[in-house]
């Protein structure tokens, strides 16, 4: 029986390699793992009834799909080497209950990790060690109850985190300090949230909280009203899944409504911004937040010695205004009305408005004025090109060819019309040819130079007449 390379299929890789070397077959790249489908750098082992990862994975793999299997754990060293090219790892729809420490040491370039719909109940700091480039982590559909504070500290590049459909009862400590721009905490068991932290982070990213049994209080009602006013996308997309829709809380600030406005104050001065709708004697349960260009101030947990403070009447007191305090301020309270005054700080060197510096003096131009001036200049240049284009000089009367001279210019609407002798405009055009000696005799006598007047008129019957009249013959000595 002759053993060929085709007969080595199905043999364990180590045995196949040994037989290939012994029988003289040239070594080649490892074949596709058993029960998997391979296409270039994509390895798909989905729904293959695997209880453990494949015993070997080609080093060129960029995407590995192990979903819909029966994996119960992810051991350390499961990759049998380092997969430098692996960017996407899909482990969803398995039975994974635990991940050993340094399990991802062999995938240092991983960008997308899907662990959704498994049986994870706890996370720890060593679980995701080595994934410094990871940008998206999917953990939804597990049984996670608690997340230690430093569980995601080793993921500096993560921007999207999905934690929906778990058993979380409180926001993980330190989660709001990460650099994510997308956080999904929907459909958990959260009953209370830190409104102050949510106000701060919602300005830099999207937070999804729908489907949680949140207790509706005045602070949460103020947050939801603020998100509705700012058209916050997570709120607008799932508005019906948030509480407080038919709240009977007595959080209303029954004062008169005041429209927002603009304020200007010199740096170092004090400024007071009133919160509209706040009654002279505010409700004792009312909670007021002020969203400033740099931070969020909470009336219930504020430092009395801070530079920004909320007074008992809901007003914001800015003690010693700074240039960086310029911008928009929003008073967030459960009142059914919204407020967004703009604060402008003035200084001797210029005016700061909305976070942008406009210096005083004539050497700097306003951006809008500069743009308008540029447009006007462009239009003028286009008109000059269209209507004042220099015409090329034609031959002289009688068929003799003569030049026009260096300083002669005729004004016309289109050079092509001049060459064809046709005029299409109503009215009269005059071209003056300046005298210039061009055909001088050897004896020094100068030839006469003639200036022509080209006229064009319109008769009463609507027809046109074009003529050329000889005038002012001059002899130049």
Judging from the principal axes of the Cα atoms, what is the shape? extended
| Count of discrete alpha- or pi-helical segments spanning 4 or more residues | 6
What share of the residues does DSSP label as strand, in percent?
Answer: 15-25%
Radius of gyration, taken over Cα atoms and rounded to an integer in Å:
40 Å
The level of helicity is: 10-25%
Number of strands: 26
Q: Separation of termini?
A: 118 Å
Q: Main sheet?
A: 9 strands, mixed
Spatial strand sequence of the major β-sheet: 1-2-3-5-7-8-9-10-11
Summarize model confidence as the mean pLDDT: 73
Task: Give a quick rundown of the structure.
The protein has 6 helices and 26 strands. It is α/β, with parallel strands linked by helices.
